[in-house]
Amino acid sequence: MSATTFDYLMMQRALDLARLGTGYTRPNPLVGCVITHQGRIIGEGWHRQYGGPHAEVHAVQSVTAQHLLPQSRVYVTLEPCSHFGKTPPCADLLIEKKVAEVVVCNLDPNPLVAGRGIQKLRDAGIQVETGLLEAQGRQLNRRFFTFQEQQRPYVVLKWAETADGYLAGPYFQPVPISGELARVAVHQWRAEEHAILVGTRTALHDNPRLNVREWPGQNPVRVVIDKNLSLPPTHHLFDGSQPTVVFTYRERAAKDNLSYVMLSEAEDLFPQILHNLFQRHIQSVLVEGGPTVLHSLLKDGLWDEARVIRSRQRLGGGVPAPQMGLTGLQEHRLLGQDEVFCYRRA
């Protein structure tokens, strides 16, 4: 297919629709769908929540003139599924409706699909084109692609530092660093990721809740590193309010909404943690750990994004922020009095 400006606009519209499902479809990908007839949109939809109808289903159901579907062109951001999961195969739905053409942004790397959806459509006589706005689609679903292709969660590092490069006061004393707008942004980031991870020191000194009370969305799974089970059981992390996983070198029985994973002291810590999270189908993790956790992940290259909030205030001393010479700056913006730097690893 020789793509036209109209084709690009329709796929961009499908990508914009897909983004509306952020935080609700995990571990499924974000998918949007637009149906056109003779240069006019007649239906559209997106995958709204895990376990619910897929984007193609919502789009087909939104078409009031169903008799136009056999002459329609369908734009979808990810290859229609060909297997039965939580819902029936979307490829079968498009075949049933006898649509004329399907334009796909990205092929699905999930081994359960992996080209089978495309082949199913073509075998039914439907014209299929692929690769339109492919890079934008991979960027949108970077968590899903990393999870499928690298068999680990997508890792987002986050920290707030002062203008003179400190994360906290002396002896890890908590100090308010970022302003109100930045704090709200952090809660938005939490809602966008499947899990949130902290180390022992951060959990001990900050006693965080790690929820999204300042932003609409689902609370992430809390992940805590507590090698020797030294954290007080009265801390918020153990209140049972949301699923929590504790990685440790000591054995302890699980409780409601709280599980313990015993790691091997003979193996590297974070590969074990990421592998376990992958087995739990956790697609992404936001790391709000202290300098030890952040430095380890940066040093080992086990990260995909880093978001650094830098305030104007100075502490003059305390716990230093990671000093790893980050490259790959993707975004720089202001949030009130704070600066936000977003990096992406090549």
TrEMBL record:
Gene of this entry: ribD
Residues bound to substrate: R190, D206, L210, R213, E288
Q: Name one GO molecular function term.
A: diaminohydroxyphosphoribosylaminopyrimidine deaminase activity
One of the Pfam families matching this protein, by short name? RibD_C
Task: Give the binding site residues for NADP(+).
Answer: A160, T202, G290, P291, T292, V293, L294, H295, S296
Pathway(s):
Cofactor biosynthesis; riboflavin biosynthesis; 5-amino-6-(D-ribitylamino)uracil from GTP: step 2/4; Cofactor biosynthesis; riboflavin biosynthesis; 5-amino-6-(D-ribitylamino)uracil from GTP: step 3/4
Record PANTHER family = 2,5-DIAMINO-6-RIBOSYLAMINO-4(3H)-PYRIMIDINONE 5'-PHOSPHATE REDUCTASE (PTHR38011:SF7), DIHYDROFOLATE REDUCTASE FAMILY PROTEIN (AFU_ORTHOLOGUE AFUA_8G06820) (PTHR38011)
What region holds the CMP/dCMP-type deaminase domain? 5-129
Give residues annotated as binding Zn(2+): H54, C81, C90
Q: Which InterPro entries match?
A: APOBEC/CMP_deaminase_Zn-bd (IPR016192), CMP_dCMP_dom (IPR002125), Cytidine_deaminase-like (IPR016193), DHFR-like_dom_sf (IPR024072), Eubact_RibD (IPR004794), RibDG_C (IPR002734), Riboflavin_Biosynth_HTPR (IPR050765)
Obligatory cofactor(s)? Zn(2+)
User: Which residues are responsible for catalysis?
Assistant: E56 (proton donor)
Q: What does this protein do?
A: Converts 2,5-diamino-6-(ribosylamino)-4(3h)-pyrimidinone 5'-phosphate into 5-amino-6-(ribosylamino)-2,4(1h,3h)-pyrimidinedione 5'-phosphate.
**Highest taxon above the source species:** Bacteria
Its recorded reaction(s) are: 5-amino-6-(5-phospho-D-ribitylamino)uracil + NADP(+) = 5-amino-6-(5-phospho-D-ribosylamino)uracil + NADPH + H(+); 2,5-diamino-6-hydroxy-4-(5-phosphoribosylamino)-pyrimidine + H2O + H(+) = 5-amino-6-(5-phospho-D-ribosylamino)uracil + NH4(+)
The record's EC number reads 3.5.4.26, 1.1.1.193
An example GO BP is:
riboflavin biosynthetic process
Question: Is this entry keyworded NADP?
Answer: yes
Stated family:
In the N-terminal section; belongs to the cytidine and deoxycytidylate deaminase family.
Protein's name in the database: Riboflavin biosynthesis protein RibD
Question: Which keywords has UniProt assigned to this entry?
Answer: Hydrolase, Metal-binding, Multifunctional enzyme, NADP, Oxidoreductase, Riboflavin biosynthesis, Zinc
| Cofactor binding mode and count | Binds 1 zinc ion.
Gene3D superfamilies, per this entry? Cytidine Deaminase, domain 2, Dihydrofolate Reductase, subunit A
